[in-house]
Amino acid sequence: MLKLYGAAQSRASIVQWYLEELALPYEFVSLDLKAGEHRQAPFTDINPFGKVPALADGDLSVWESGAILLYLAEKNGQLADLAQKAVITQWVLFGNSTLANGLFIEQFREREMPRLLGVLNAVLEKQDYLLGDAFTVADVAVGSILAYVPIMLKLNFDDYPQVAAYVQRLTSRPAFQKTIGHRPG
Which of 2, 44, 48, 83 shows the greatest Cβ crowding within 10 Å of its Cβ? Predict the structure, then answer.
């Protein structure tokens, strides 16, 4: 069985979202980050950098949320051919790097947010999801970053109505609601 290592309010919830979308059985192993469980064995045998999330699939360990998403997509037949794999990989890397840095690093936000969200808005004017009419792992990678914007940055997408509608589509999905959208209380 797959084991996903993470903690509350970590990027592990992004991987959980995709695991739920794929309806894959997995065990969530919660690490106490305040106690430093992520920086000591046995977890450092899975990710020597001591960061979450990490996924164990038998003897294989994969870390970095984007790498885990791509691994799960490939393992579950979601990357049909090389061209599709390349397009999905570019979106996953865009979400984890370009988009996340452009939105969450304050010194870049004023310049990058309008440019990035303007292009995304234009893409989403033509289609419901990043690759067309079908939801893919690319939407998990990019959508998770976008879903955090109103929560963490207290910003909205008023100037980008197609992005706002896209985020609404994603956050309404049952697997999203079960993972990232779940608020205990």
Answer: 2
Q: Domain 82-178: which CATH class?
A: mainly alpha
Q: Write down the CATH number for the domain with range 2-75.
A: 3.40.30.10
Which pTM was predicted? 0.95
Q: Choose the weakest-confidence range: 6-10, 96-100, 140-144.
A: 6-10
Radius of gyration of the chain (CA): 16
Beta-strand ranges (E) seen in the chain are: 2-6, 26-30, 54-57, 60-63
∠ Cα 143 130 104 (to 5°): 35
Pair type for strands 54-57 and 60-63? antiparallel
d(CA 160, CA 122): 9
